[in-house]
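Before the break, one more example. Copy the sequence into your notebook; we will annotate it together after we see the structure.
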Amino acid sequence: MKRKATAGLISLAACAGLALSSGALATEGGSDTIGEGAEAFFAGALPPAGVYGLLYYTHYHASQFNDSHGNSAVPGFKLDADVVIPRVVWMSDWSLLGGRYGAYAVLPMESLALDAGGFSFNRTNLGDLIVSPGLIAWGAGPLRTVAAMEFVFPTGQYDMRAVLNTGKNYYTARPIFAVSWMPNDKVEMSAKITYSFNSPNRDTNYHSGNLFHIDYSASYALTPAARAGISGYFVKQTTDDTLNGQSVAGDGFRGQTFAIGPGFRYQFSKFSLEARVVKEFFVRNRPAGAALWAKAVIPF
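Here is what the structure looks like once it is written out:
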């Protein structure tokens, strides 16, 4: 019975595809499309009207897959993920509900490598397309806020017989709220909050549970161009994973993780660069590891 349970966990872990995730995985195969950790400093302060290119890169490494009690559950587990994430953001001067209207689209490229139970697997391919047809940004002073609705479409590589997939094969609707508070020219505090509603995977009859998530940051300006601080994320699954209508693993296989680490940002004359490292704690039903994030914002 123990061997059967372990094999089941290996199967769940082995299906992991990151699609914008830093590696903190939950739901079917332990994966999601949130991109937790991608946003940090000035998450709620969107730029003036124009078209912007954002390029993210993340490297994630985990050497443990935790069960619902926080114990290592998969023998020989090791997961490495390198993900390049281009995002195009359009901001307009159009006024909507007292704010500025915009939209964006994201399409990641993922390279995954997994060792589990004495086996090794690799996969490199496109992830799922993420689109927000509408966002609204408010504020021009110390307090800035953003509300958006984004949708994830199952466009990425997926084969239900494959061990690793970069696509999820289900749809997600995700409301988003972000805020930045800048009480003076030195201090900044930001947060991005999301909630993911997932559709069932029709090929497997697996329904991934809903997810609450928050990215957070606080930073201090060392010079007019350079800024240092801390950032991280928290993810909590709020509903059970189900397979054929039954809760998975008896407890719904609900994922959880908390991450924190240092970050640095530099503002050049026309673009900015940001780098952060975070370590995960209090992990349940997910890989437990650490991630490096880099982000560049370039106006077109």
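The longest strand covers residues 78-96. DSSP finds one helix and 17 strands in the chain. Try to locate both features in your own notes.
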